[in-house]
Amino acid sequence: MKLSTDQIDFIKTILIKNGVEIQSLQDDLLDHLCCYIESRGEYDKDFEKLVSQGVAELAPFGLHVLQEQTLLLLHYNKLSNMKKLSFVIGALSAMAWFIGVFFTLMHWPGGREISLFGFLIFVFVFLPVQRMLHASAVRSPMEKWKFILGMTSGVLFSFSFIFKTFHLQGFETLFVGSTVFFVFIFLPYLFFSMYKKSMIQA
Prior knowledge:
By secondary structure, this protein is mainly alpha-helical.
């Protein structure tokens, strides 16, 4: 006895909801799950339970992990080079930032300019590269939004630091806004996404 069209569509929906977006992977997983359920004989009464069992056996850590692993294999060389570039840029921006802070504390000339250079490299080079890496390797819409909100929070706090360093007007407003965004937007979304992920894997 084979699965009905509605049952197959139900399995497809489960795959999509769990972040499986690559069509070839989606087809392979669908075929595997259909074979798994059909091999169990009478499945009409416990169909949804059998689907959950099949998903758990196929992907103990979640179907989204299979999606991520497949993407990594497909784009391994490109991602490897981008990661190396990201680490180099991140290291340079952090070094420039802290050297600038050190110069400023020592009252040596050029401290603020060096800090600003590190900040600009971080915001306009490092973060976009990280965004590209994240988009290539991930993921479900929830994971993407979590990254975007986290990156936005980091940028806001970074701007606050620059405003404070250069004694620019608006520091307090920017810092308060950064804190509000982090506490009332990013953190709730972060923990909500962790909760949803745990429920999927349960």
